[in-house]
Amino acid sequence: AALTVRFLTRRFIGEYGDMEFIYSHNLTVDGREILFHIWDVPNSQEQTEEGSSEEKRIQWADSFVLVYSICDRASFNILPLKIQIIKATKEGQSQEKVPIVIVGNKRDLHHQRVVSSEEGRLLALSLDCGFYEVSAAE
């Protein structure tokens, strides 16, 4: 949620509940107007929901940004399964590769890091995804 709000408003808010939101945002990229619809789902909610809700979100989306905390091994470890589900759902219907980016957040908290940058890069490479490390706070 912090990255979504930072993208939309350029502001950082540190605390969020486990709420699900859909945001819409216009942005000009390379002279073209692009309309983003962002379905922001906290990981804790995804883990407790039925598969049909998750499948509905996957069908709805054209691309995926999966965010983990570099300070939370469990948030990183769930990524391969999430990506496998996304690819099975999206690519099973068409031959097109689904755009997926893995983002390690909280780069500013390097002193609390438990997932290395190299681990993130290697996971993204092995799953054919993009990779970035960022700090929503900075």
Automatic annotation (TrEMBL):
SUPFAM superfamilies the UniProt entry points to: P-loop containing nucleoside triphosphate hydrolases
UniProt enzyme class: hydrolase
Entry keyword set: GTP-binding, Hydrolase, Nucleotide-binding
Any one GO molecular-function label of the UniProt entry: GTP binding
SMART domains, alphabetized: RAB (SM00175), RAS (SM00173)
Catalytic activity line of the entry: GTP + H2O = GDP + phosphate + H(+)
Lineage: superkingdom: Eukaryota
Catalytic activity, EC: 3.6.5.2
PANTHER family named in the record: RAS-LIKE FAMILY MEMBER 11
Similarity annotation: Belongs to the small GTPase superfamily. Ras family.
The protein's name in its UniProt record: small monomeric GTPase
Organism, scientific name: Centropus unirufus
The gene coding this protein: Rasl11b_1
